[in-house]
């Protein structure tokens, strides 16, 4: 059993991801990591990012898909209060996260999260602007407007 301060051996998993190993190799390393940590949402670096946030930041779509299939927590944030949606670097990754959030009925919660940036709290939309990701911003805006309309219709 891991003590509360013990960290699972994350280096092989992160290295396999960075080296773009085969999906089977990464899936095996991910399963080992989860088995060792006991938590799919365990932090994987000094910023307290989950593997899902790390994969979103590095735009590893296959890893994102695997983690979403295994029910990774979309609302978990790192030390800076960044969510996985704030970390997405492509419209494809954004679409995966938004679809999963809609299926889990937590899309509005995910949109409402703000980080603890020194310049002031920022949303996923703010982060997309700051990172120069207009495709991500457009997708976020599309879903935010759709979600607002849906909530208005549902409340009537």
Description:
The protein is an all-alpha fold and 156 residues long. The protein contains nine helices and no strands. α4 runs parallel beside α6 and α8 runs antiparallel to α9. The N terminus is likely disordered.
Q: How are the SSEs placed, and which strands pair?
A:
Layout: H1 11-18, H2 23-37, H3 51-58, H4 61-69, H5 84-87, H6 91-103, H7 107-112, H8 124-130, H9 134-155
Helix pairs in contact: 1-2, 3-4, 4-6, 6-9, 8-9
Main attributes of the structure:
mainly alpha; disordered N terminus
Q: What is the straight-line distance between the termini?
A: 51 Å
Radius of gyration: 16 Å
User: How many strands appear in the DSSP assignment?
Assistant: 0
- By secondary-structure content and strand pairing, the structural class works out as mainly alpha
Order of helices and strands: HHHHHHHHH
List the uncertain runs. Answer: 1-8
Helix content: 55-70%
Averaged pLDDT? 82
**How large is the share of residues in beta strands?**
under 5%
Count of DSSP helices?
9
Shape: globular
Largest sheet: none
What is shown here, in short?
The chain has 156 residues and is an all-alpha fold.
């Amino acid at each position: 059993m891991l003590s509360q301060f013990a960290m699972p051996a994350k280096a092989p998993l992160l290295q396999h991801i960075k080296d773009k190993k085969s999906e089977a190799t990464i899936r095996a390393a991910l399963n080992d990591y989860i088995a060792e940590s006991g938590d799919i949402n365990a932090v994987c670096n000094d910023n307290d990012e989950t593997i899902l946030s790390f994969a979103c930041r590095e735009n590893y779509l296959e890893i994102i898909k695997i983690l979403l299939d295994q029910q990774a927590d979309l609302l978990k944030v790192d030390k800076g209060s960044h969510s996985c949606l704030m970390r997405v670097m492509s419209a494809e990754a954004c679409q995966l996260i938004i679809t999963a959030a809609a299926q889990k009925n937590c899309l509005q919660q995910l949109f409402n999260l703000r980080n603890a940036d020194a310049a002031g709290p920022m949303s996923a939309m703010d982060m997309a602007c700051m990172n120069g990701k207009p495709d991500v911003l457009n997708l976020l805006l599309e879903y935010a407007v759709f979600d607002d309309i849906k909530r208005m219709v549902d409340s009537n």
